[in-house]
Amino acid sequence: MIGMFSRYAAFHRVSFFCQVVFSFFERPFLRCSIFTRRNVTECLTVAMLLSTIIIRDAGAQYQSDNQSSLQSQQTDSLIDGELAYTIHESEGGRDKVRPEPGYFDNLVTTLLKDAGLPYVIAAQAPWKRVIEQALQGNRHVIYPTTRTADRENSFKWVGPISRTIWNLYGYADEKWQDMSFDTILSSARIGILLGSARELYLRERGAQQLVLVPREDLLLPMLHADRVDLIAIGGSVLRQYRDIVDPSAQQRDIDGILPYRSCFLYIAISNAAPIEEIKKLQDSLDKNKISGQFIEFREKHGLSSDTNSAFLRAMLNLDNNGVACIDLFGRDD
User: Which of 11, 45, 73 is the last residue of a domain?
Assistant: First the structure.
């Protein structure tokens, strides 16, 4: 019987103290003659005492394991005892092939430095996981993030820092460009980034065949491999990826099939972040735009810097702070 308790306890990784007790009692216990009343009483008494120790120790172990599990899920970081902001670098990181992510990374770190806020930089992870960490954590920073009505109350926002036209891209010699938006949604296999704002929007609009991928750089190869008919991706991102795919796969022209939404992009921060710190970051961004540093950052990373363009006029206009998306089919946020 004691051997059974001992094995049960070992399974639950009980303390060294309990194991010593088991070793001390096990041999005399097993020599007890269970066919006498006196020994039955003695054996049962010892067994009850040991089971109490086992249960208490196993319970303490369970509580310890549970606390360790909760601690392992904690994703926020401390610097000198102060809760720091965790920056999740934009997908692609500082890849020279894609200058835009490096631009966003530098912009965000500059804003945090100017605001005097501590930060750490996290290793890249799939967008879906990063979104979940930002939702559950206290000081997570993700960007560039589309500000939509369904996300509005889930984060605090700093921006805008960019703008994009949502478009569906596919082969120009296919039939899709001659179809209506609703027909495309019901008929086409559409490749899209898992957890993106585009995924939720197209799903709500009635898309029947969404093909989800964990990384945007997988979308173009899937189109070339005929695993999808269209891809939902940013135009500038697509142009960068086209430069690194197999040149033989670029014989067919890829074009925008249907622009369907215009959205401003922001820095999204965990909702638990103090509002006064968010205001510091927004003020820092506004000063960055007024001083010309915003344009200087873009020039440094090889991005357009024509202040007469509609895009940069929209970026530099502080009246656009807080603007989200405009649906090109009449469903504005």
Answer: 73
Residues 66 and 175 in one domain: no
Contact 213, 189 (CB under 8 A): no
Average pLDDT of the chain, as a whole number: 78
Element (H, E) at 2: helix 2-11
pLDDT score at 202:
95
Please list the alpha-helical segments (H only) found in 31-140.
37-73, 99-114, 127-136
Instruction: Map tokens 């039955």 to a residue.
Output: 40
DSSP letter (8 states) at residue 192: E
pLDDT tens digit sequence for 40-80: 455 445 445 444 444 344 344 434 343 333 233 346 888 87
pTM for the full predicted model: 0.67
The first and second tokens of residue 279, run together, are 């205001």
- Of 73, 93, 124, the domain-final residue: 73
Pick the closest to residue 53 from 24, 27, 28 (CA basis): 24
* Residue-level pLDDT at 142: 96
Residues 60 and 82 in one domain: no
Distances (CA, A) of 192 to 89, 195, 210, 264, 279: 20, 9, 7, 19, 33
Strand partners, 254: 171
In which domain, by residue range, is 16 found? 2-73
Q: Note whether 265 and 151 are within 8 A (CB).
A: no
Q: Verify that 42 and 137 share a domain, yes or no.
A: no
Q: Please report, for the domain that includes residue 162, its CATH number.
A: 3.40.190.290
Q: Is the peptide bond before 274 cis (omega within 30 degrees of 0)?
A: no
Read off the pLDDT of residues 77-110 as tens digits, 9 standing for 90 and up.
Answer: 888 778 999 999 876 544 444 456 688 999 999 9
- The secondary structure element, H or E, covering residue 308 is none
Same domain, 60 and 96: no
Rounded Cα distance, 169 and 176, in Å: 10
CA distance linking residue 238 with residue 218, whole number of Å: 11
* Model pLDDT, residue 265: 95
Tally of domains within the chain: 2
Q: What are the C-alpha distances in Å from 260 to residues 228, 319, 328?
A: 19, 24, 5
Residues 320 and 184 in one domain: yes
